[in-house]
């Protein structure tokens, strides 16, 4: 999928695969993924039922990747991710303890899902849009390999990916304060 | 309190309803920014968190009384006032602070009777920040874009508005604009409008920004492009058929608001033409002696918000407009903390204030862990505050009370094809939850 479109109000589109007759919309996210499906032909109804019921039961391990997030305190958080999930969705779905991550819920209205990638991984990511750059420009600790987690979708080749949650400016000031006080 | 298993947090708020600027400051056509309400709601639902609205600190209960009831008190009451221009005529009837105008269209109870004068074609906004752009956009947007959670009353007033042209006037130059690129892009693309950018303001600017950090560079490049480059076919067609326009005027510092014949309304604004000394963020605007006048009736002053001191027992720096503190610890007042705009000054978006709050929370946690806060004294928390409020005839609004108000607003909104119809009268809110 070439670059995820900004999603208004948390909706988005993705193809479920050859089993489904129509497109599958993810309606909101969070604890429960509610899936609304549009059916293009009667014969697809059975396929749809199969797809819906098989969604969580028959995910082969090939479809799941491992992603590591280095948190602000240096702790490594490891999570499993589904192909096509955005890194923000991974954090939310896997309940990772990253404070204040994804305040605007993936709608390109904040920069709290800012992540730092390794150079070689960064180069292979889908092209960044102007809309993402506009919000990334406001992020703290911006680097040359920064992206917004809500706009980067997990691909098979990203298995074992490690990303860094940026240390916020406020934290850096705290370190300088502490240094000053201890002198 | 995810980091401390036993901490209980009670939140006190003056209005019956929570969320502050997310409800009353964020523009009605920016609903995605308000998604953060879901995170707030989740926090409020924790059994170690309680919300008490309709309680005015400094009147219904004093900070000292809170300090007796709690181990730590965090002041995060923001900036409820605005910077004043300090020029003659600023109190004429058609001059308003952007803060009051934003409060008006967002249903802030204290601004519901503003009745801004929208009867003339040209409006001047003093200031070039995101609030200035919000105000210009709300004045010029097609009504179908505005039909969101903007109040019914203000939408009706805007529907009758004669305003066709909005100038955003700044004392300094294009390299000092305070608005950000997403908001500028939105303005440039606003249906039914065309931008009025003087090419003379932007010629040669491309060279100056070559080595400037990316955010400032991209923002300036967008302005340069819109001012100097020939628009594409679609854009050219839109600009040609536009019935409304907005523009940026630079290096103009307000000197006086000129009164109309009736002596009550404004008829224009006199401004000093400035030149810049220095460059970048620290450039200063210096008068050249030249003066210019701009004809207008509606003037909106968008030069910054301002915090006010809460009560005389709390240290407050009137010059900086903040509570003096170190990493959120109020100076000279153990057990007292501050966060947000009242701690750092009234600028920043959600991420800024959120990080700042995490920072203050970190200070509180450290003080808890290091024994700076004496936990051996058990504190009564809301139990003692409840009896104080009761004795003063004050009835706090709980979070589930808010949820009843929320449901009523959403239901009323549905009838009008809007996500919600905000209730703007606090008495009506209290009646709804039978207080």
Can you summarize this structure?
The complex is a heterodimer of chains A (183) and B (435). By secondary structure, chain A is α+β, with helices and mostly antiparallel strands. Chain A has helices spanning 44-54, 87-93, 119-124, 130-136, 169-181, and strands at residues 11-14, 24-27, 34-37, 64-70, 76-82, 114-116, 146-148, 161-164.
Q: What is the 3D form of chain B?
A: globular
Strands side by side in the biggest sheet of chain B = 5-13-6-7-9-8
Low-confidence stretches of chain A: 1-42, 54-58
Largest interface: A-B, 32 and 28 residues
Query: How helical, in percent, are the residues of chain A?
Result: 10-25%
| Helix run count of chain A | 5
List the defining traits of the structure above:
heterodimer; A: 183 residues; alpha+beta; 3-stranded antiparallel β-sheet; 3-stranded mixed β-sheet; 5 helices; 24% helix; 20% strand; globular; disordered N terminus; B: 435 residues; alpha/beta
Describe the structure.
The complex is a heterodimer of chains A (about 180) and B (about 425). Chain A is of the alpha+beta class and about 180 residues long. Chain A contains five helices and eight strands, in the order E-E-E-H-E-E-H-E-H-H-E-E-H. Chain A has helices at about 45-55, 85-95, 120-125, 130-135, 170-180; strands at about 10-15, 25, 35, 65-70, 75-80, 115, 145-150, 160-165. In chain A, the strands form three sheets. In chain A, strands 1-2-3 form a three-stranded antiparallel β-sheet, with no helix packed on it. A three-stranded mixed β-sheet of chain A has the order 5-4-8, with helices on one face. In chain A, a hairpin with a 5-residue loop joins strand 4 (about 65-70) and strand 5 (about 75-80). The radius of gyration of chain A is 19 Å and the shape is globular. Chain B has about 425 residues and is an alpha/beta fold. Helix content of chain B is about 35%, strand content about 20%. A six-stranded parallel β-sheet of chain B has the order 5-13-6-7-9-8. Chain B has a three-stranded antiparallel β-sheet with strand order 10-11-12, with no helix packed on it. In chain B, strand 15 (about 325) and strand 16 (about 330) form a beta hairpin. Chain B is globular, with a radius of gyration of 24 Å. Chain B starts with 8 loop residues before the first strand and ends with a helix. The interface of A and B includes residues 97, 99, 130, 133 and 138 of A. Chain B: One of its GO terms (cellular component) is mitochondrion. Chain B: Belongs to the ferredoxin--NADP reductase type 1 family. Chain B: This is NADPH:adrenodoxin oxidoreductase, mitochondrial. Chain B: Keywords: Electron transport, FAD, Flavoprotein, Mitochondrion, NADP, Oxidoreductase, Transit peptide, Transport. Chain B: Pathway: Steroid metabolism; cholesterol metabolism. Chain A: GO terms for molecular function: 2 iron, 2 sulfur cluster binding; electron transfer activity; metal ion binding.
